[in-house]
Amino acid sequence: MYKPNENLRKVNIEDVPFKNIYGRVGKVTSPLPLLFNGSGVEVTVTGQELWIDVETDSDFHEMWVAYELNGSIMGRFMLLPGEHSICLFRNMTFDAPKTVKFYRELQAMSEDEYVKLLVKGFKLDGEFKEVPSHKYKIEFIGDSITSGEGTYGAYEDTDWLAMYMGFSRNYANMTSKALDADYHIISQGGWGVYCGWDNDIRHNIPSVYEKVCGLSTGEAARELGMMDEYDFESWQPDAIVVNLGTNDDTAFFQPPFTVPETGITYFQRLNEDGSFFEEDLMNVEKAVIDFLIMLRKHNKTAHIVWCYGMLGYRLTLPITEAINAYKLSTGDKNIGFINLPNTTKDGYGSHMHPGEVSHRIASEVLIGYLKEKLEGNQ
Amino acid sequence: MYKPNENLRKVNIEDVPFKNIYGRVGKVTSPLPLLFNGSGVEVTVTGQELWIDVETDSDFHEMWVAYELNGSIMGRFMLLPGEHSICLFRNMTFDAPKTVKFYRELQAMSEDEYVKLLVKGFKLDGEFKEVPSHKYKIEFIGDSITSGEGTYGAYEDTDWLAMYMGFSRNYANMTSKALDADYHIISQGGWGVYCGWDNDIRHNIPSVYEKVCGLSTGEAARELGMMDEYDFESWQPDAIVVNLGTNDDTAFFQPPFTVPETGITYFQRLNEDGSFFEEDLMNVEKAVIDFLIMLRKHNKTAHIVWCYGMLGYRLTLPITEAINAYKLSTGDKNIGFINLPNTTKDGYGSHMHPGEVSHRIASEVLIGYLKEKLEGNQ
Amino acid sequence: MYKPNENLRKVNIEDVPFKNIYGRVGKVTSPLPLLFNGSGVEVTVTGQELWIDVETDSDFHEMWVAYELNGSIMGRFMLLPGEHSICLFRNMTFDAPKTVKFYRELQAMSEDEYVKLLVKGFKLDGEFKEVPSHKYKIEFIGDSITSGEGTYGAYEDTDWLAMYMGFSRNYANMTSKALDADYHIISQGGWGVYCGWDNDIRHNIPSVYEKVCGLSTGEAARELGMMDEYDFESWQPDAIVVNLGTNDDTAFFQPPFTVPETGITYFQRLNEDGSFFEEDLMNVEKAVIDFLIMLRKHNKTAHIVWCYGMLGYRLTLPITEAINAYKLSTGDKNIGFINLPNTTKDGYGSHMHPGEVSHRIASEVLIGYLKEKLEGNQ
Amino acid sequence: MYKPNENLRKVNIEDVPFKNIYGRVGKVTSPLPLLFNGSGVEVTVTGQELWIDVETDSDFHEMWVAYELNGSIMGRFMLLPGEHSICLFRNMTFDAPKTVKFYRELQAMSEDEYVKLLVKGFKLDGEFKEVPSHKYKIEFIGDSITSGEGTYGAYEDTDWLAMYMGFSRNYANMTSKALDADYHIISQGGWGVYCGWDNDIRHNIPSVYEKVCGLSTGEAARELGMMDEYDFESWQPDAIVVNLGTNDDTAFFQPPFTVPETGITYFQRLNEDGSFFEEDLMNVEKAVIDFLIMLRKHNKTAHIVWCYGMLGYRLTLPITEAINAYKLSTGDKNIGFINLPNTTKDGYGSHMHPGEVSHRIASEVLIGYLKEKLEGNQ
Question: Does the pTM of the predicted model rise above 0.90?
């Protein structure tokens, strides 16, 4: 008969002596908010049993989480609003150290002001040990691709739902693992560097980059300090991977969008021959340049690489034009561009987004690129 | 703010008008016990939201479950003893039919008399629709390989724990999907056709095959009818895949085992040159023959194929000798043998068992074999 | 005992009623010079037996050829100077049509003024039939990668030799096959768009592009009309793939080069921090622009895509800068850029060049890109 | 202008101080007859240039050969009857040792009494060096699969021709390379262990196994000593791979065959239900047993493994029954059986035979099996 483990003791998150925290944090770290997909906490423990205590809230888009034991995924599930005490393993050999990483699958939700995931602490019957540290730090900035949208779900599934997103099968996860890297992720489905897929000018990543988690806008978010200026000094990456442009491209093929607050209408136009209207393209290019300036301002030494192509190549040349202009005007040479291979027929997951196969192919190209940069060979 | 869906209505499992049940069932079907790994229930529903209500119990080996949405895995998690109401999806397009399959990852646990998983019903805001039926029926009978042991977990993980087992990444799942087959699974880690890996004569699959779920021995199991004779007429497979022999092989390399109840010691011996002691090998061969007779008694028309090799080939010839003897003595020709490829270095999962890669390779061979048999080409 | 086929009749190349010719041709087409790697002749014949009559000459770099039967490679071999009558198949079913393609593996050799391969005719006992035509026309322009250098030979082989080059395992071959395309190839190992790998300013592809085969400089070449202006109207491609830049990159890391004829020294310099010296980089960018202008002048409707990356990404941004400048100044929008994945450890062939594996990976990316362009989807 | 290398000197095969010879040889070794597919000669030389001098003859089935340079295939071509002096490489770095292996692609041709391939010597400008030796010795015995039939040619090609056969893409080659093994091959398309695919009783491999090359029957063969008893002591393998049974299976589905010399008709029959007629199956089983006895007689210590399955599994159980009977009656335990995976849709080459992909899959299974046996782990 099941008997609760009487040797479990509760340790609040602030009292955990050793832990790796993945993803940005703000002023509130206890309980620890996991703000982005991939945001997580990792501990190495002895003992037979480990639990994690979390609190979640949400509205339309419920929270999804996953965890890995010794680097291998063990569980993935939905958490509805409330307090959850989750058993991560039981009955393991007491003395052997186990490394467990618990992380958020769901992206920061700009459309759900209630959504949150707070880690309050652990329950264990062993001891915390030093957690292995990583060789590199990488920041990933992107849209639905970087949010792992479509990495779960069947090809036929076309709803826009939390459960289809994930970090567990995402190229950012694959890349970080292959390079032994700590990472931050800032991404939002449907957003661009200049505007969202639907011409909504407000949905641009640069506008939220300098906040701790500017994507979260509700009252709760404010209390957790997500609207605060992010302290970039606290975590300086070796490389920044920007995977944006896909939605800026889509916007050209969508109707105009009027921002409700201002009544101003935005519209990225096509020429009659189907090519991009040059002046509107300049909007995107200017946004790229401005974003690079912003990135460099806060990340003095990181190599910045703009990745693009997993859902079409149309903006390759405009993006590189902007990068070149940025290089020329600033003299900054520590920046690059690389195409990631477009998703082909067998590579799709759900919702017409890259599936695990496509993320695997893309990560192999990116790993090759970053390996040379980080090891200083090229 | 999260508001519970007020349109959800509860439907007890016996009132669900359309459902696929995977795995054996006994006299009690409401609540519906999911007895083996892979045992599950599948429904097709309209509506925005679907919940499943289950009850679990266990002692050492906690329950693990998973579910698929439209054929793609969505969640996998541990369930500790108690009642659980689990949300499977939310906010999907109301009218679109969705097929959801909820199943047990954990094998029937002969060592945990409390372990159980009962499906009590669903909560939904839509309607049940007819569930697509399958083309074939396949029964898989095996040991830890068929219990998917090692398909989760890191290579370094060597504990013997519930969480490492699974159906989701198991060759039986892959094979059934590829052939569009309904399936039954009867498997138990450490057991053989003649004896267990440690010479424990009681741990042989034939001894439990004729009960509904003879692996479960506690009081609760008795109440659920697991000790009852199984009604083979209720589900006649097109093919039976027997994947046994791996533990019978291991026993030869282990010390003797004394059955506590009887005080009798059992010992499969090696010759001095390291080969199997012929007389003891006969035990295995006789067990194979007897088991085939038992299988045929209950499954008159199924093609029976004995699979072997994923963890070593040493018993290939003894097993085929037994199969040939069975064929000769009975005249039964509807039987075959096939090697599944041995697990190589990169194919291991945890606990020195075949990982997902090895299961994939094995399933491709098995699929090829069964396709010809089931389509009547060979 | 072998008896020569008495029904063979000789047909001079100019009398072959149906044939596909791959690769550029000049004024002399009988005998038919195969000038570049991939240059070849394809016929569809009935009959039991087929021979091809060729004449070759060479100095240091001997000729290598290969042939395919019904799209599958059958033979590959060296041809030393002289007349060769080569049996391509024997004893096939008489009436069945067979398509045979005989082609040059060796690139046009700018360093061997004697090298040549002339097809004089065929011997057959059947009839020539219409040869299946292709859906698209693609021109590939490149360096050693496009010459297939390293696609044959062991990883340890580091000599610079004819036998390591090839079309048979080259991405241009894979891409053309996948897209059902006729192709032209103009490529030369060690050459760039601005200069060769060793700063030799003369080794730039644009300088030879407008001649039939400007890479061949000897007396024989002149007689065959290789120095003549190429008649671009005779073959207008749907797409032009330019895979240049790898040697322009290498030049920055090499010592200066003095052109013997002029005594002028050329030197692409690095800054002290290891970055490219801007002024010298401008040489490359200007060469890219000028070459694009040249390409467009002769190919009014072709989509031009610059491919780059199989041996490093360092010139990605300079090349795109040039392409963007070209677009801006000319208004030409029918042009693109794409990275091909860098060769990783397991992808190398001989001589530190991409092997078959790397060509396969690159071709998959290129095929995806071209498919969308050629089918007009993007 | 091409100038013949004046430093070349001719060395007769018997004067080559170091060489690896692959495949059986008889009393005549100078010139060296290459009797089977895979039969070849390997030398390690310094110098810039290497030629091989061979003499060939044939009737219907012309000779095909291939060669590898430093382990990587470089050329493959047809040789019509006559003397051939073939340049294998030119202009390599003089001092570097190069290992070149020249081998026969075409199986021993029982249906072409003229076919032969004799190596007379080499021409080189360097020196012969010691050739690296191999770790193991493996004998492969088989039918068209082991003759590599279908490993060249398009899926649509269905003629039975020399050019479709090969050793270069054959599982025996892949297996030997992976295990660092010297090898012998005795194989013949259409032959079985009991009878040929068409019930021709004369076409069984055991009948020719004890001759040097009993498959070659002409006058020339006799002179070369191919009909002599083979000296098994001269080369004792560590493992024998028998891949036979596929044609014995096919015979059951073919009409009777009358041997012209005797007028006796042979016919492997099916029962009305489509199963094998037991008495006729016994012919096959007896042939298996007898062949195993023959193999063991000549190879006292080799591990013998019977492989089966690449073109169907129907004889798996009869073959294992015979092996088990052999084991029982002889006490020989150094023998095994393993299924090789059946060829699936994408795995076919030409002539409905396994293509390179299928040979690759099969070799991986076989390599895994042999590695354990040869390294003594199982």
Answer: yes
